[in-house]
Amino acid sequence: MPPANDPLPPLAGLTRAHLDWRSDDGGEDAPHSSDFDDVYFSRHDGRAETEHVFLEANRLPERFRAWSEDRPFVIGETGFGTGLNMLCAWACFDAHAPASARLHLISTELYPLDRRDLARALDAWPDLADRAAMLLAQWPEPVSGVHRLWLDARVTLDLHFGDTTERLRWLDGRVDAWFLDGFAPARNPDMWQPTLFAAMAARSRPGATFATFTCAGVVKRGLAAAGFSWRKVPGFGRKREMLAGEITAPPEDERRRATPWFTPPAPRPRRRIAVIGGGIAGASVAAALARRGVAVTLIDREGPCAGASGNRQGVLYVKLAAETNDQSRCYLAGLLHSRRWLDALDPDGTLWHPGGVLQLATGPREARRQERFLDNHPLPESVVRGISSAQASRLAGIPIESDGLEYPLAGWVRPDALCRRLAATPGVTLRCGEVHDIIATSEGWRLSMTGAEGENELDADQVVIATASLANRFAQTADLPLQPVRGQVSSLTLPEGAPAPTRVICAGGYVAPPQSDRLTFGATFRPNETDDRVSDADHRANLDELTRTLPDYAASLEASGASLDVTAFDGRASVRAASPDKTPYTGPVPDADAWRDAYAVLAKDATRVPDTVGRHHAGLWISAAHGSRGLASAPLCAEVIASRICDEPMPLEAPLVDHLHPGRRLIRDLIRGV
Predict the structure, then answer these.
(1) Range(s) of the domain holding residue 169
(2) Are strands 352-353 and 295-300 parallel, antiparallel or unpaired?
(3) Is residue 204 part of a domain?
(4) Cα angle at 198 between 195 and 199, to 5 degrees?
(5) Do 434 and 500 belong to one domain?
């Protein structure tokens, strides 16, 4: 295995699979890989082969029937291909598993199919049509990384796009059954390497099984060397034999030798979870947990959508670094995740509008930065592309003087309505009140709070703190540095026939397409200010920024009769929160005193890493510091927290989960002697 501190590969688009369609055994045309000169499956008996090789050899029907754990059953697959194996596993789960069970599917793919090819391939199985439709509706762009899809209320699919061994190396999760698939070892020798089998072993739970269609010697030797026991069993069709087996004692996670402080806490009871904060961060955590069957109490001083989440319009956007870093990886993953999440949550688009975002380069410095970004990130144009001022003008429907970037999958959201929708998720109980103290008890936590009924208490097994700039007001979180940032948005009434942008436009500020007859733009950025009263001075600052970014549009607004008198503007001011490194805090809350004691040696020598596991406040979590990009970060961060609480595979690569960890600043300060 590579060293635990190897960096992730650059952000990049992947090459789509090249297919041709050939008649197979006298049957209908079947998908054939031009890259590997091999078939994905036989049209004649592909489904029967999948059921024999992967479902029966892993004993899935009987294991599903007996599944009683409160975590999902996890299947890992090497090579998604057309998705036939995963859809068959889903159908088997539905047929045999109890109603309370959940299924989590993980599959790697280096050459993802085009959506049209995928649809054509799956047309061969009409009884899988409904399941295939759910897959196709969420089929992600060909971008390296983890893409989480919600196939139904009980079944989740994580597509890990990239090299299989690399993807399994960075998988943060454990597998119960492996589908060791992919093109044959003779056709795809780069995959069937010792490092693949070692990665599988390291990501297996004790007793995890595997099945594969091949009996090649390289496979038997690699499995045995990694700790799997194997046996030959009858193959399918003309294949006389295949392999199946299991691993009794998987190896320890070697990644934690370099970062023991980020070792996840052990699973705890989760019958009752309290989420403090009803903005987008807290409401998305509450909904993510409730979707998993957890009873959640969502607590907010003013109810859902207070603070910055109460704005009528918010921008779903990212600004990625010119050189790839972990923060950009997290935010791009968050943007793609939020787009799929909103599609699934609100397919009719009542809460959001996916019209795209234009990010303008209004000066030479930003233009050079955007050029470097495009040079360093060969991403699909469906995700981001460079555009000229003329293209920007056509896309936005108003005159634009600057070149820039287009993010076609971005757009704008109604944060206030979105928070209310999330708070109404079945299983979430909304409670108005202000939490003053969080006190550890023998069974979890006791929250002391003030509400309409006066002083009262609430007991919970676990607690998630999501209160923006107030998230470090509790004793357990006081060591997490947070900067309050005041922001004010402005809006004006558009006269009939006045010009308006059809896409969100960002530069120093932003302007969104009008909602009804209101044009919203802003927002100011006032670090270390907490006053949430609307001011004419900030209205003037927003108007000045709009005029600098879009001078011709500002002039046309005035010519159309729109009032640019700031005293007539509407607006809303709120306080966001930022961390010193501008990355959210997402994960378990560290016991700061215990970390300083356990890892004090780092101040003298950062290479002397103790083997002490990091201590956390058991059952206490945080999602905060989302700043102005919370619509791109909070929903994915909610999945990170809910997945960890519910003992599931994570929706990000392990290094990115660590990058979000709330304890990262403590380690940085220890190393620097701060």
Answers:
(1) 43-251
(2) unpaired
(3) yes
(4) 85
(5) no
